[in-house]
């Protein structure tokens, strides 16, 4: 995000670098889809082999990430929250979502909450309503968000350990896909270095930043992120690198 400020910090983001230097959202959204639907050995979702699952769900995930214009790290945090939600469903003996619409809704709400986990800025529900193509009203988004909080008992804090575990599962999914698709070497996953400005928190409700370490700053520490990077280096089918990218301004993201 580009903000006129002399104070900024660098955070690390996992992405898939295509030949033109952009993030391959098609592949990444496919990984997210597999993470959500195939995380457990027992079938968490029914009919996941059908065309709606292979096309609609990954396309929806890619659309949310693209239209929101937020980084891939936010999607990884969302996946960690989805996993926590799925675990809570099992503990409460609740039925798992087993339709494409339910899975899409789960990812969207987790992605919205991930924005509160990673960023101090208040992102309005009007913005997320536009991201969802007006599929949900602001009131519906608020209600679904509160249902998510209730299911996980408000445990939405994502520390480096939880982030690293999710990152590892994402990497394993990438290896599985890469072994089948024979992806070229230049299309390897990478860490982007993104400059994000430090701004004061403007919460929509009295919700403290779940991973805030000090002073209301919500980003994962850079050196700790490098520890995650190093811990997953050396894979047989994946090469991790670092590169710089320009900052982006999130359109209409701040209320």
Task: Give an overview in words.
There is one protein chain. The protein is mainly α and 255 residues long. It has a single domain (8-244), classed as Cyclin A, domain 1 (Orthogonal Bundle). The chain has helices spanning 25-37, 51-68, 72-91, 100-118, 125-131, 138-151, 160-181, 222-231, and strands spanning 8-16, 189-197, 241-244. The longest helix is centred in the last third of the chain and has 22 residues, at 160-181.
Helix content: 40-55%
Radius of gyration: 17 Å
State the separation between the terminal residues, measured CA to CA: 15 Å
Q: H/E element string?
A: EHHHHHHHEHE
Level-2 CATH architecture? Orthogonal Bundle
CATH topology assignment: Cyclin A, domain 1
Approximate shape: globular
Domain count, please report it: 1
Unreliable residue runs: 1-21, 184-255
Approximately how much beta-strand content do the residues carry? 5-15%
Class inferred from helices and paired strands: mainly alpha
The overall pLDDT, averaged over residues, is 65
The biggest sheet, with number of strands, parallel, antiparallel or mixed sense and barrel status, is: 3 strands, mixed
Arrangement of strands in the largest sheet: 1-2-3
Number of separate strands: 3
Q: Can you tell me the CATH class?
A: Mainly Alpha
> What is the overall number of helices?
8
